[in-house]
Amino acid sequence: MYKLYGSPSTAGTAIHWLLLELGVPFEVRLLDFDKGEHKTPQYLALNPDGVAPTLIIDGAPVTQMAAIATLLAERHPEAGFAPPPGSPARADYLSWTLWLANSLQPHFRAWFYPHEPAGGEALEAVRSAARARIEAGLARLDARLADRDHLVGDQFTTVDVLAVILCRWTRNMPKPATNWPNLKRYLDRMRQRPALREVHAREGLTDWIDG
Ligand SMILES: N[C@@H](CCC(=O)N[C@@H](CS)C(=O)NCC(=O)O)C(=O)O
Fold first, then answer.
1. Which of 43, 82, 46, 80 is nearest to 63 (CA)?
2. Which listed CATH number (2.30.22.10, 3.30.200.20, 3.40.190.10, 3.40.30.10) goes with 2-79?
């Protein structure tokens, strides 16, 4: 039985969604950030960065959204959420996973937590740079989706889980992901997935899922 430490509308939502997609048994603890439940000594012992998500697997904590998603796909190969090692789509799968986690996701961190890179001084400059990089990333995703239904190979993978959740985070930004036509078509389709709708219900999220 997996145990997920998440929090509504965060990177934890991606793992919560993926667990529902997989249909495996899990329990979830949604941390209340406003109460600082992610900064307690007990939680920091599991996730030293004090962020969501953490997934407990066989009693041991695993951190980092992209790593957890990739690991879950590996542990449940029957779902087909990752092309197997040696298959033609494997290179694309690894590249897009790492690009989303390493190249795009940090700009969201800068957008939502601009004081981290900026200190108290240049919050607006940091946000504006983060916004430009996020929009460039969305344009990259849009181009990729011009003639395909999924980001990697020809079926749903954990790359789609990561990308959709990052796109969700743009919903209140000046130019949300749905402004790009191929992304909109893709997100509209993804938003029909029962597990994504279910995770919205379970986390009490009412915006974005219906467009
Ligand atoms: N690189 C980490 C980032 C996780 C992250 O930044 N989570 C945010 C929510 S999306 C968080 O927990 N923020 C609370 C905080 O930093 O205090 C991952 O992918 O798991």
1. 46
2. 3.40.30.10
